[in-house]
Amino acid sequence: KEEEPRRVAKKEEKEEQKKEEPRRVAKEEERKASPEGSSSSNPTGCTRLFVGNLPWSVDAAGVDEALGCAATHVKYITDKDTKMFYGSAFVEVGDPEKAAQAVERSGVDVGGRPITIKICPPRPGDLWPPPRQEVKARTPRPESGTTRLFVGNVAYEASEDDFLKQVSDLLKKDDAVRDVRWLTDRDSGDFKGSGFLDLYAVEDADTLYRTLNGATLKGRKLRIDYVAS
Known about the structure:
The protein has about 230 residues and is of the alpha+beta class. The chain has helices at about 5-30, 60-65, 95-105, 160-170, 200-210; strands spanning about 50, 75-80, 85-90, 110, 115, 115-120, 150, 175-185, 190-200, 215, 220, 225. Helices cover about 30% and strands about 25% of the residues.
């Protein structure tokens, strides 16, 4: 009986260590990554990047926008058990010059957060690039539900009316949306291709999470994710 509290404490300590592991890995990789951002800082021609401080709702299109070029592979750093994304990723861009140019964009605003971009050569023994592009797991439904959704990978030529019509068609009603807030560049005001949708009913958010994700709008497949209230 006296040993029971110790066993419980050790178990809880192990659980905390497991939760901290992705953060530890991300910090360690960021420390190893080159802090320089010019093409002269990439003499080995490395094409692999570390990208940190990403918003949890970011998608592949958001990563490309942040880098200023298309990534060929994205490996999101997640918890081994829960698959929860911790805001960091390893990215392959396939070209040394593109990698150097991407590093110069470190600090750019993505979803209201200044991201970190650094040259990050693979460690010895790492399989890089990975066999296929990895897709970040979608956010699990909040326990009590939510009326807010993240909307990503929206075509730049799509209008708000185009999007709302698609929502209305899926829900079969016109009065489900409380508000839509699109994300724009702080300096230029240009549309970033993503935003937030606020609905009146949790049930409607659940329906759109299932049916709107992957739906095509103006040639691009939408990414829909939950946002905790």
